[in-house]
Amino acid sequence: MQHVKATLKPNVRLVAVSKFHPVEALQEAYDAGQRIFGESHVQELTAKQEVLPKDVEWHFIGHLQTNKVKYIASFISLIHAVDSVKLLKEINKQAEKAGRVIDVLLQVHVAKEETKFGFTPDELLDTLATEEWKTLQHVHVVGLMAMATNTDNEAQIAQEFDTVSHLFATAKERFFAHEPTFKELSMGMSGDYLIAQEHGSTMVRIGTTIFGERDYS
Ligand SMILES: *Cc1c(COP(=O)(O)O)cnc(C)c1O
After folding, report:
1. pLDDT tens per residue across span 153-195
2. Alpha-carbon distance values, 110 to 1, 121, 162 (Å)
3. 2-211 is classed in which CATH architecture?
4. Which of 32, 54, 111, 165 has the fewest beta carbons closer than 10 A?
């Protein structure tokens, strides 16, 4: 973990992506000072949250189903990949029940892959323009999240991150000009975080480089 931290710019925060790794691995990272952990399955997250120290900041980084929001609403610090207004409304509802305001990022789809979720850049700006999100008092949109195409073509990856970075600037200017808390750009995984942080990332989500390969068996 320290070897990863040493390569991060001072303004970039590390989300240690611990999915599929046992609590012992998380505890070890915690003991070494790591506090932000990213998980992408609700059941796995809630099981780990119960046993790890209470000052861990849990981030949900995967695709979140609306019917599962209720299981994490009481403790989640940041939901990275909000990809619909329906999900945003459900988070708002569950946050209200829990007496909280939950920070979220809106996911942008820029990768050349069918399987990646998220708003296209046009959909994102259109959605923000409706201002419906502003009526939701228990969710707080603090930035954007994106994944680049899984490719060795670094120029393409850089271009995709750059697109998101420009979109972030446009959204900020049009819709969040008076909100200093709209400042997060979650971009970059093990294979591409060095490129991501050159293109404005403030939060990188790194699993394999910290914990090793995941065992899906
Ligand atoms: C698993 C995952 C990561 C971490 O990927 P690594 O390549 O292991 O660093 C980052 N972001 C999301 C959304 C993920 O699902």
Report:
1. 999 999 999 999 999 999 999 999 999 999 999 999 999 999 9
2. 28, 8, 10
3. Alpha-Beta Barrel (3.20)
4. 54
Q: How far apart are the CA of 207 and the centre of ligand 1, in A?
A: 6
Ligand 1 binding pocket includes 14 (Cβ within 6 Å): no
DSSP string, 200-216: T-SEEEE-HHHH-S---
* Top mutation candidate among 1, 40, 204, 216 for ligand 1, by most atoms within 8 Å of CB: 40
Ligand 1 in reach of 208 Cβ (< 6 A): yes
4-36 pLDDT tens trace: 999 999 999 999 999 999 999 999 999 999 999
**Cα 13 to ligand 1 centre (Å):** 15
User: What span, in angstroms and rounded, lies between the C-alpha atoms of 179 and 173?
Assistant: 10
Spatial distance between the Cα atoms of 102 and 75, rounded to a whole number of angstroms? 9
Q: How far is CA 75 from CA 38, 58, 102, 103, 125, in A?
A: 13, 8, 9, 11, 29
If we measure between CA atoms, which residue out of 215, 212, 210 comes closest to residue 34? 210
Residue 16: CB within 6 Å of ligand 1? no
- Residues 78, 138, 180, CA angle at the centre, nearest 5°? 65
